[in-house]
Design brief:
The protein is an alpha/beta fold. The protein folds into two domains: 195 residues, Spore Coat Polysaccharide Biosynthesis Protein SpsA, Chain A; 107 residues, no CATH class. Helices cover 41% and strands 19% of the residues. It is built from twelve helices and eleven strands. Helix 5 runs parallel beside helix 6. The protein starts with 7 loop residues before the first strand and ends with a helix.
């Protein structure tokens, strides 16, 4: 018997409210979810057939998503405004919920909107807390394994899982809020299940660009914050060495025109370095959060390492 079959509501966060949003809303409305709520930051917009939650300022993705999810009932499919869902997506997610025996986070298969292959099917985890998209750039094929992290571009939260986690930490703003929530969920013994039949297309980088300085700064700063909060102590003790090893790997691959660092410019590299520094300065605050979180942990140090290994970043994705 599966977990409770509450209806699926859809929450879409936007601050542009442009043609991409219209396409996203149209794809969702065609599949009759319980409710469609669009969270609009710093602009006024009305769309027929959906409820609009108007925010007076651009308060960041994490806060906006929290506000939207708090305003709807049931399980929640959270979408970026630069996505659209394929026919049968909500039905496939509904079937996945029905087959589950415990609260779970569900990761749709996200395709690149230009048709060139996969964006991701969740994230694989590095031992320093960095994550990389599972299947990024690959053909639309079966990946196998289980994600260690979900993608904030499209994810279904079982309502009881969302409530247990308390939502995104608003201090992450954007980029890394999904990593933090994924690692906190892993610590609580939760799992993330890929649902390949639930398909979503994504205009990757439509808001911040794929490798902009602003994006890489936030990724590295927030990665340190999430790592201090949730990784095993033994990983934190070797975090500088693990991070240097990862960056060295990326640099070596970039020389061959491959891997995550291949298209990163000088300004973006300096921004990533500043993010690492600022995240390190923030470490005492997140160490305190770690101690507050411990009461809800179901995975100890060894179990956490085991879970991270089982959901590690795939070598073929890193090298592509």
């Amino acid at each position: 018997m599966g977990v409770s079959q509450a209806p699926i509501s859809v929450v879409i966060v936007t601050h542009r409210a442009d043609a991409l949003l219209e396409a996203c809303v149209a794809s969702v409305r065609a599949q009759s979810p319980a409710e469609v709520l669009v969270v609009v930051s710093n602009t006024r917009r009305e769309l027929p057939g959906v409820r609009m939650l108007q925010l007076e300022a651009n308060i960041g993705f994490a806060r906006a998503a929290n506000a939207g999810i708090a305003a709807v009932a049931g399980h929640v499919l959270l979408l970026n405004d630069d996505t659209w869902i394929h026919d049968g997506c909500i039905a496939a997610l509904d079937a996945a919920i029905a087959a589950c025996t415990a609260p779970t986070l569900f990761q749709p298969r996200i395709l690149l909107a230009d048709g060139s292959g996969l964006d991701n099917e969740g994230h694989g985890v590095f031992p320093d807390g960095f994550v990389w998209a599972r299947g990024r750039g690959a053909r639309d094929v079966e990946l196998g394994g289980r994600p260690g992290g979900f993608s904030g571009a499209a994810v279904l939260f079982h309502r009881s899982a969302w409530d247990a986690l308390g939502g995104f930490d608003p201090r992450f703003d954007s980029f890394g809020e999904d990593v933090d929530l994924s690692l906190r969920w892993m610590r609580r013994g939760g799992r993330i299940q890929a649902v390949p039949a639930a398909r979503v297309s994504h205009h990757l980088g439509a808001t911040y660009g794929r490798t902009s300085a602003s994006k890489l700064y936030r990724i590295e700063r927030n990665r340190i914050r999430a790592a201090v909060r949730s990784l095993p102590v033994s990983a934190l003790a070797t975090l500088p060495a693990l991070t240097l090893a990862r960056l060295g790997l990326f640099a070596g691959l970039a020389l061959a025109g491959r891997g995550p660092g291949a298209s990163v410019g000088r300004d973006a590299r300096w921004a990533a370095a500043r993010g690492l520094w600022d995240g390190t300065l923030d470490a005492p605050e997140w160490w305190s959060e770690r101690h507050r979180d411990r009461a809800g942990w179901q995975r100890g140090e060894i179990a956490m390492w085991r879970a991270m290994w089982q959901s590690r970043a795939r070598w073929e994705d890193i090298c592509r």
